[in-house]
């Protein structure tokens, strides 16, 4: 389970399927980077500073927290919440990829009558269904649930603008929709404030953290790392988790 902004819960339904897709892709990018000895760049600083083995280890930890009801609730730290944000940022990358794929999908010209227009494969048959899953997750999170209620959402978050059509290519609208989904898990973006605290007088830091409700070890808690033997096990467990697509 995970201590989300909407209570302690395990993600289910389309929300869980969406996170699994994103985690699976992020896992693929991290393992590909191992061959080059380069960390994957997610544009989330606290995650990007990690070595590939650390990235995979913290992704394993966070993914199980979000998706596995048997995983005990973890203390929220900068590196853990930053990893959650990296997962949701990866969703936007998948949207960009899916749109590009749809716009450049192959055409089968075989057996077309002379002069007939070629028929493109429908969007629903594309390899990635990320936009459809995002829309499903948005609708599920705006409906009453047996596990939690959206009544606690601030009014402007209950219906953020409009939900995109599945075939929409409006990247700004997809970005705002993904941000809405991320806000149902993340409390805030405290993990982005590390440079701010680093520049402050240490005598003032404790008081500011107390005022903001930030735990003392929030920024200093390290990411887990894995040796070569553990890495293989964690990778296989993460792969198995992301392949469980039942919703």
Quick summary of this structure?
This protein is mainly α and 247 residues long.
What best-fitting shape do the alpha-carbon axes yield? globular
State the end-to-end CA separation: 17 Å
Helix-strand category: mainly alpha
Let me know the largest β-sheet. Answer: 2 strands, antiparallel
> What radius of gyration results from the CA coordinates?
20 Å
Question: How much beta, percentage-wise?
Answer: under 5%
Helix coverage percent: 40-55%
Strand order of the largest sheet: 1-2
Series of secondary-structure elements, N-terminal to C-terminal: EEHHHHHHHHHH
The residue ranges in which pLDDT falls below 50 over 5 or more consecutive positions are 106-113, 115-128, 145-158
**How confident overall, as mean pLDDT?**
80
Number of helices: 10
Count of beta strands: 2
Give the key terms.
two-stranded antiparallel ribbon; mainly alpha; 247 residues; 2% strand
Describe the structure.
With 247 residues, this protein is mainly alpha-helical. The protein has helices at residues 13-36, 45-48, 52-67, 78-103, 130-141, 155-158, 171-183, 194-198, 202-212, 228-243, and strands at 2-4, 7-9. It has a two-stranded antiparallel sheet. Strand 1 (2-4) and strand 2 form a beta hairpin. The radius of gyration is 20 Å and the shape is globular. The two termini are 17 Å apart. 32% of the residues are buried.
